[in-house]
Design brief:
Elements (H helix, E strand, L loop, with lengths): L57 E3 L2 E6 L5 E2 L1 H14 L3 E4 L5 E6 L3 H13 L14 E3 L34 H14 L13 E4 L12 E5 L4 E6 L5 E5 L3 H19 L15 H11 L5 E3 L2 H6 L3 H6 L12 E4 L5 E6 L4 E3 H6 L2 H7 L36 E4 L3 E7 L1 H13 L13 E3 L13 H7 L13 E4 L12 E6 L5 E7 L7 E3 L14 E3 L18 E7 L4 H11 L6
Parallel strand pairs: 6-7, 7-8, 17-18, 18-19
Antiparallel strand pairs: 1-2, 2-5, 3-15, 4-5, 4-14, 8-9, 9-10, 10-11, 12-13, 13-16, 15-16, 19-20, 20-23, 21-22
Length: 585
């Protein structure tokens, strides 16, 4: 088993505040020049990786912050309750959902007892299988996999063809990416080398629909109907096709190889996109897979790997479209059950709203569903490899677990139709986004003031004030409010950026994801600069502070900027107009 293997590649020094620890096992070997080219040594990072975790808390202006990684977004009903209780007892009473499908607790106390109590709660709930790996377990998975009939997950009789040894008790609501997430998490937590990954390194496990594959992950697995998967690194359009049963191990090996290449190049890179040109990561990954006994072949075109494979699904319109996140509402599964997709306004849920997600099944069973605990022994704190507490299969049962999504939503699977309809109504009354007609649909924001010291405005309050009533329409661009130019947590793809500026104003920008996006924007005068534009109409493309003069085709990210002096009706109008901008993707 891979877990029993010593590390086979050198790893960069741990960039946390804690002292570096020497790797366990055999002495690391030097990379072969045949598999790892010698790129230009250009340092990318000098400071330590300050990404917060569940054990290392971040000091924010509103108290300390804990970020908890949820591989595949999976949570048992009991774990949902534990997080709600922790938010009430130790934090500000809210659970935040991040753009990677993880959760955060804010407003935690500064005393040591608060952090220790939170750690104990998370350990007992099976949410911290390894102290040393807790910040590197960034794994997103297609949240609707196995639920909507797309991707070939459902086989005759409801058995799941999962590429991991056959069906799973005939439960059709399990998706292959969720099973991959569970196995990859086990492999990560058993890998000494993986402890050197940054807290920003991301794995994406896609069932073929292209949703999480569009999130800019460092390692992506794209499932195929023929029982294989393609492994991609960064934005590389070519990948390596492997058997689906080998996919999680291949993903881990790709991440470990990234560490080898980053150290060999001296770049200090935390993400694949930070590697200097000529890094040769794809060649090195192919070599590493061969050494590990994993058969792999090159796939030349990233788009063709999914488009050709799922042409029949597209023709039958059985999927929501390439790269599209789950829409809010009810999803009818082939096994007769219903899954609910709901979004959290601005990514925040109160403890009461968070608990409400579990109420349908809890009420039917007369108590909280326990699910599968970490360690296989009720969350016991036994010793394990690489600092893991507990042993054996960890985590939630993918057939019954809630799925937290990278689009700041939650999927509640496996409900009877009547229970689903009742719960959806109660969630809507409680303030969650349950359909695209909600004015909150497509609106996101960072923390802003008063929680973040770097923020220049209370973006949540200003976003609320600028909400259109009624909603701007189902085809409106998403909008994201940021308290500063860092744009923490902003979504991928075409969107409207609303960024706070010094002096109390905002900069409203339309950004297109397509290399050839055509954009229609608003400006005071067709010949005026963006810095002075507030109202009236012009058509064109531009970068920040450039002149909007007419229609054009962009060759990179499209930005059309309107600066508004202060929050109020003018800002609301500017945002509303930007959201109905035409962006050809």
């Amino acid at each position: 088993m891979l877990a029993a293997m010593p590390p086979t590649s050198p790893t960069p020094a741990n960039r946390d505040e804690a002292p570096s620890r020497a790797p366990l096992g055999a002495a690391p070997r030097k990379p072969s020049r045949a598999s790892v080219p010698d790129p230009v040594r250009v340092p990318v990072r000098e400071a330590g990786d300050a990404c917060p975790g569940a054990l290392r808390l971040h000091a924010a202006d509103d108290g300390r912050l804990a970020r908890l990684r949820l591989p595949g977004g999976l949570l048992t009903y009991r774990q949902v309750e534990v997080l709600a209780s922790a938010a009430e007892r130790l934090g500000d009473g809210h659970v935040d959902i991040t753009s990677r499908g993880n959760v955060q607790l804010r407003g935690l106390g500064a005393d040591a007892n608060c952090g220790a109590e939170l750690a104990d709660l998370l350990y007992e709930a099976g949410l911290l299988p390894s102290e040393r790996h807790e910040r590197v377990r960034n794994i997103v998975a297609s949240p609707l996999a196995g639920l909507d009939g797309f991707g070939g997950e459902v086989r005759e009789g409801g058995a799941l063809g999962n590429g991991l040894g056959g069906g799973l008790d005939g439960r059709s609501r399990v998706g292959r990416p969720q099973l991959w997430a569970r196995e990859l998490d086990d492999l990560l937590c058993a890998s000494e080398a993986a402890t050197a990954l940054s807290g920003r390194f991301l794995f994406a496990l896609d069932d073929g629909r292209g949703d999480v594959a569009a999130l800019g992950a460092d390692v992506t697995l794209l499932a195929r109907r023929d029982g294989t998967a393609v492994v991609y690194t960064g934005a590389n359009r070519s990948g390596l096709r492997v058997d689906a049963a080998d996919a999680p191990r291949a993903a881990l090996l790709a991440a470990e190889t990234f560490l080898t290449v980053a150290e060999a190049g001296g770049s200090g890179a935390w993400r694949v996109r930070e590697l200097p040109s000529g890094h040769g990561l794809d060649v090195a990954v192919a070599s590493r897979l061969t050494e590990a006994g994993i058969a792999a072949e090159y796939v030349a075109d990233r788009a063709a790997a999914s488009t050709t494979d799922h042409a029949a699904d597209r023709a039958a319109e059985t999927h929501p479209g390439d790269g599209e996140p789950p829409l809010p509402g009810a999803i009818h599964s082939p096994d007769g059950t219903v899954a609910l997709s709901v979004h959290a306004p601005l990514g925040r849920l109160s403890a009461a709203q968070w608990r409400l997600l579990t109420s349908a099944r809890v009420g039917a069973q007369g108590g909280t569903q326990r699910g599968t605990r970490a360690g296989g022994q009720g969350g016991a704190r036994g010793s394990g490899q690489s600092g893991a507490r507990g042993s054996g299969r960890r985590g939630a049962d993918p057939a019954t677990a809630l799925r937290v999504t990278p689009w700041r939503g939650v999927i509640v699977p496996g409900l009877e139709p009547a229970a689903a309809a009742d719960l959806l109504k109660r969630l809507r009354i409680a303030g969650l986004i349950t359909d695209r007609d909600s004015p909150w649909y497509g609106v996101g924001a960072c923390t802003g003031r008063p929680g973040c010291a770097k923020a220049l405005a209370d973006v949540r309050a200003d976003a609320t004030e600028a909400l259109p009533r009624p909603a701007p329409g189902r085809d409106a661009l998403p909008v994201y409010w940021s308290g500063c130019d860092r744009r923490c947590g902003h979504p991928q793809g075409a969107r409207v950026d609303v960024v706070a500026t010094t002096g109390g104003g905002y900069r409203v920008s339309v950004r297109g994801a397509s290399p050839t996006a055509a954009v229609t924007a608003t400006a005071t005068d067709p010949g005026a600069t963006n810095a002075g534009a507030t109202d009236a109409t012009a058509t064109g493309t531009a970068t920040e502070a450039a002149t909007v003069t007419g229609t054009a085709t962009a060759t990179a990210t499209v930005t059309v900027t309107v600066t508004v002096t202060a929050p109020g009706p003018e800002l609301a109008d500017a945002v509303a107009t930007a959201r109905i901008t035409t962006v050809t993707r």
